[in-house]
Write a structure and sequence with these properties.
Elements (H helix, E strand, L loop, with lengths): L1 E5 L5 H13 L2 E4 L12 E7 L7 H6 L8 E8 L6 H11 L3 E9 L12 H24 L12 H10 L1 H5 L1 E3 L8 H5 L5 E4 L2 E4 L8 H5 L5 E3 L25
Parallel strand pairs: 1-2, 1-3, 3-4, 4-5
Antiparallel strand pairs: 6-9, 7-8
Length: about 250
């Protein structure tokens, strides 16, 4: 069986993982809850967003724990720029002795919108053409031909610096008067950075910049630096309740 290990906060990576599963089979597993090393699978496909020219912390932490035998493919998605993240993740996998066969990078809607607003027409355009890009990657995976990123200069130093500072984002979050204390943000956070304390939502210093809480709060009550931004993003083609879940046995 193929293990499709994914990290997703707003559904883009889950959508890709679900399409891979429908075409190629396999079991979908949410990376933050995965305790294995991949040895139970014949193949591993890691589906991950690109964060700051690198990868989410949970993916960064997972790869060194995986076994060195199981064949691995990595499918990245990005809203802005790749910035050498494809070659960086390939090099990182090799550094840890993984049996990395292919790395793909494909464009999906941008969800890092704390400082700017992505026009809705642009989001719809990217979504409309996403299936073609995903299907092309699935076809290449199915064909079995390796896809090795061309060697290029990466932004590793910038990525590592940003990764070490992601906690600052969580410290800048707060909730406004729209918060009804439903606890959804507590439940969706992959790093246990949010807690309900004495009836109040509190943010700690373990934020991994996934922005799941920010985008998925039902009342848009979570704000960044007290900005009154209304735009939020959840991939409209996924069942939101499945983000952060494994596929059924």
């Amino acid at each position: 069986m193929t293990g499709i290990l994914y990290f997703s906060s707003t559904g883009n990576s889950l959508y890709i993982a679900q399409k891979i599963q429908r075409k190629l089979g396999g079991k979908i597993i949410y990376i933050p809850t995965y305790q294995g090393d991949g040895s139970e699978f014949e193949k591993i496909i890691v589906v991950t967003p690109i964060y700051s020219y690198g990868m989410p912390r949970h993916v960064f932490d997972l790869l060194p724990k995986l076994n060195r035998i199981t064949e691995m493919t990595i499918v990245q998605n990005y809203g802005g720029m790749v910035g050498g993240a494809d070659y960086y993740v390939y090099s990182y996998a090799l550094q840890h002795g993984l049996n990395i066969k292919s790395v793909y990078a494909l464009k999906m809607p941008e969800n890092y919108t704390l400082d700017f607003t992505v026009p809705k027409f642009y989001l719809k355009s990217v979504l409309k053409s996403a299936d073609k890009r995903i299907d092309s990657v699935i076809e290449q995976i199915s064909g079995g031909e390796p896809s090795i990123p061309r060697k290029k200069r990466t932004k590793e130093a910038k990525y590592l610096k940003n990764k070490d500072n992601w906690h600052i984002i969580g410290e800048r979050f707060s909730v406004n008067e729209k918060c009804v204390k439903c606890g959804k943000c507590v439940n969706v956070c992959p790093s246990n950075n949010i807690a309900m304390v004495d009836g109040r939502i509190e943010f700690s210093n373990r934020c991994v910049a996934c922005l799941g809480c920010y985008h998925r709060c039902p009342n848009k009550a979570i704000v960044y630096l007290n900005r009154k931004k209304k735009d939020r993003y959840i991939n409209p083609y996924v069942d939101e309740s499945l983000i952060g879940k494994n596929s059924p046995e």
